[in-house]
Request: fold
Amino acid sequence: MDSLAEKLNVKLHQWQPDIADRVRQSVAEIIEMADQNTLDVLRSRAIEQEVLDLLDEPNAR
Reply:
C-alpha cells in the first residue's frame, strides 16, 4: 500500500467521526475527478480565497 494511503487510513481512525466522514467525501470526489480526468477543474482553495480577498478589498486609487 502507498505510504499516503497508509497515513490516511491511520488518520481516519484517529479523527473525530464527523471530520473523518468529510475527509472520506472529499477523497471520494477527488478520486472520481481523477478517474474522469477532470482534476484540472478543481480550484485550489488558496486561489479561491485570494480572489475573494481581492473582491473584498476597497478600490485602491
In short: The chain has a mean pLDDT of 86. DSSP finds three helices and no strands in the chain. Helices lie at 3-14, 17-35, 45-56.
